[in-house]
Automatic annotation (TrEMBL):
InterPro entries from the UniProt entry: Tetraspanin/Peripherin
Any single GO CC term annotated in Swiss-Prot or TrEMBL for this entry: membrane
Protein's organism: Mesembrinibis cayennensis
Primary localization class, coarse: membrane
Protein's UniProt name: TSN13 protein
């Protein structure tokens, strides 16, 4: 049976925004857990993860309030923001899935050269030193550096990069379709009349 009624559209929209709220809290929690247990020392990475989580939480809150109160202005802004997020997320997800090995390698090298704190985390967690060549004269935070028998990090990272990009691209693609579903539900819900409202009131 197709969900076409006012109550059904409202409940679906509320459920979708509760899902976004849980995802945003999970994202913030994972970032806080990572820095709390010393897995991530890069405040830039943690800041981005927490920022995305807070942004998603605020969007979900706007959508939830708009759905509960059938607030036209909130629902309109929620629909526009969700559409923009869908476009960006869909594009990024497709790019992640379309990268070949050479492009992945170039992207990893650029990231390695531009993030010193993330580089330290990688060296410590993967027990490797340097990106493509191990240089005993450079500083390194991995355990193998004491014995000067480290292998470079590039082969280890590249071994998992394809899997990680496919995972991130797949998750992003899945959530991008939930966002376009949210846009469609919001559009329908905005144009439906609340049966409990005054019949002479405007939509």
């Amino acid at each position: 049976m197709v969900c076409g009624g006012f109550a059904c559209s409202k409940n679906c929209l509320c459920a979708l925004n509760l899902l976004y709220t849980l995802v945003s809290l999970l994202l913030i929690g994972i970032a806080a857990w990572g820095i709390g247990f010393g897995l991530i020392s890069s405040f830039r990475v943690v800041g981005v993860a927490i920022g995305v989580g807070i942004f998603l939480f605020l969007i979900a809150l706007v959508g939830l309030i708009g759905a509960v109160k059938h607030h036209q202005v909130l629902l309109f802004f929620y629909m526009i923001i969700l559409l923009l997020v869908f476009i960006v997320q869909f594009s990024v997800s497709c790019a992640c899935l379309a990268l070949n090995k050479e492009q992945q390698s170039q992207l990893l090298e650029v990231g390695w050269n531009n993030t010193k704190s993330a580089r330290t985390d990688i060296e410590r967690n993967l027990n490797c030193c340097g990106f493509r060549v191990f240089d005993p004269n450079e500083t390194c935070s991995s355990d193998c550096f004491k014995s000067h028998q480290c292998q470079p990090c590039a082969p280890i990272i590249e071994e998992y990069s394809g899997m990680v990009l496919r995972f991130v691209g797949g998750i992003g693609l899945f959530f991008s379709f939930t966002e376009i579903l949210g846009v469609w539900l919001t559009y329908r819900y905005r144009n439906q009349k609340d049966p409990s409202a005054n019949p002479s009131a405007f939509l």
